[in-house]
Amino acid sequence: MFALSKLAINYAIFALIATAANISAQDLLIRAYSGEFSVIASVALGTGVGLVVKYILDKHYIFRFQARSVGHDTRIFALYTVMGMATTLIFWGFEFGFHHVFETKEMRYLGGVLGLAIGYLAKYHLDKRYVFRAGLG
After folding, report:
1. Is residue 38 part of a domain?
2. Tally of domains within the chain
């Protein structure tokens, strides 16, 4: 039971780190560029940054996965990304929904954080079952 609790705490911490990386990347882009499509560009950038950060943390510390080669790691990352597409729709739905309803960047970021939290919970189960399962690849 202790190992499961430790895993859940570590996963939550890593989700917070990836969320901070995502929102920070968004905020940096918005500060640098506020023109047309800036919100969409910032969300896309943040999604990419958060994806890479979360993959590295999950692979090493949550699932303790060792890729056999660069090609194997690339295939696993591709599968990880595919599994993240559905959860990304949850995240984007919350973030863009909050942006539409409240029309402030702070509320958009709050929507993003809530969407990421829900999405990461679902993503853990998808990754455990389909991405990092024993013997994959």
Report:
1. yes
2. 1
Q: Output the pTM of the full model.
A: 0.84
Alpha-carbon distance of 80 to 48, in angstroms, equals 12
Any domain includes 137: no
DSSP 14-54: HHHHHHHHHHHHHHHHHHH--STTHHHHHHHHHHHHHHHHH
Show the domain range for 55: 2-131
Look-up of token digits 């920070």: 24
Write the DSSP assignment of 73-97 as a string of letters.
HHHHHHHHHHHHHHHHHHHHHHHHH
Ranges of the chain with pLDDT below 70: 1, 134-137
Computed from CA positions of residues 58, 60, 65, 67, in that sequence, does the dihedral angle turn out positive or negative?
positive
